[in-house]
């Protein structure tokens, strides 16, 4: 007896296999989570095998589910491409990308100037997160900060990041003596992103300042808050370069010391497997690599 498998169930399965969340699958397909669960269950029954292992807060592919996804996904992509080719109406082209909030506002968006004129038919959707710990939505592309290159997906290395001590112009005048000594930092509040609570001590170690004993450390939950707090005179902050260069160029922040905290962190552009056959996504990848790679960015 032939097996009748609805195409909508296959599409639902492919999306769920990519984002590993029935809730997110429902959002992408404009369904309810229960409808997604029902379609997956029907598909499993028609195939006679379990595709997902259902856990309390997540789902993961079974071994059979992974093999089935690897076999069926190229066929579904080919089908979608064929339908798009014969469709009488012009397909709306949307590329979605997840990226850190501060990176987006201070570095990414300013370098999008010219994109709309060059690609007027491609719409962009930016999703921002405040830190690496925040759960990201499933998007076509991601820009992440990581200490090593991701190996589970296709990733392009962009550039490294370093941190420099900075404060407002008023604080700079208050601290400035000739010459400014490192112990001056023990007399002022020090501001840092809560994801890097020990980075002031790491900076002091790299600067050769032994037995560093800060007076007070203030942790904030976003890099934008860190930079704004320093600008408004709360204290001295460790500010990331090169993505904060505009703050220094405008005089909103003043650099205190030449010493930088160098880390292994780089920004990476991560590409999901499902985006490989969409030319509009490749256009954005090429745009980002041309403007953001270490040897290209200003």
Automatic annotation (TrEMBL):
Protein name: LysR family transcriptional regulator
UniProt record similarity statement: Belongs to the LysR transcriptional regulatory family.
Source organism (scientific name): Rheinheimera riviphila
GO BP of this protein: DNA-templated transcription
GO terms for MF: DNA-binding transcription factor activity; sequence-specific DNA binding
Superkingdom of origin organism: Bacteria
Keywords of the record: DNA-binding, Transcription, Transcription regulation
HTH lysR-type domain boundaries: 5-62
KW DNA-binding (keyword) present: yes
Keyword Transcription regulation part of the UniProt annotation: yes
